[in-house]
Amino acid sequence: MEKHLDHIGVAVRNIEESIHFYENVLGATMIDRYRSEAIGVESEIAIMDVNGFRTELLMPTNNTTSPIARFIKQKGKGVHHVAYQVDDLDEAIKELEENGIRILEGSLRTNKHGRRLIYVNPADTEGTIVEYCDYPNQ
């Protein structure tokens, strides 16, 4: 199955400063900005486009339960995950399972843009958080 880089997720402490950098230094355009209080997300998200390449800026909204807050406490701010688009997420999950790769339990969801996604267990990727996603309605 083909995989293509979809976006990079970046954990930030101050989303305003990060947006300023992306817009004024990198020349990015903000595609969307929203807040998600869904369990396992609990973040403010700004989607930035730099010449066709997307970065999601992720700032925790709950410093005790947000996985982004946990990530920043453990590893500091910076690249949180790398997301790869697949043609069919269900088939990609089967392919992962056939290769002995686990997904993070409870990570399967659909975001507000209709992107279905899961996270691969970083224990199976040498510590990198990898997201697989598809866009079934596009």
UniProtKB/TrEMBL annotation:
An example Gene Ontology biological process: L-methylmalonyl-CoA metabolic process
Record's keyword annotation contains Lipid biosynthesis: no
UniProt-listed InterPro entries: Glyas_Bleomycin-R_OHBP_Dase, MeMalonyl-CoA_epimerase, MMCE/EMCE_epimerase, VOC_core
UniProt entry tagged with the keyword Mitochondrion: no
Domain of life: Bacteria
Residue ranges of domain VOC in the record: 4-135
Keywords: Metal-binding
One Gene Ontology term of the molecular function aspect: methylmalonyl-CoA epimerase activity
One of the Pfam families matching this protein, by short name: Glyoxalase_4
PANTHER family the UniProt entry points to: METHYLMALONYL-COA EPIMERASE (PTHR43048), METHYLMALONYL-COA EPIMERASE, MITOCHONDRIAL (PTHR43048:SF3)
UniProt record similarity statement: Belongs to the methylmalonyl-CoA epimerase family.
Protein's UniProt name: Glyoxalase
Lineage: Bacteria, Bacillati, Bacillota, Bacilli, Bacillales
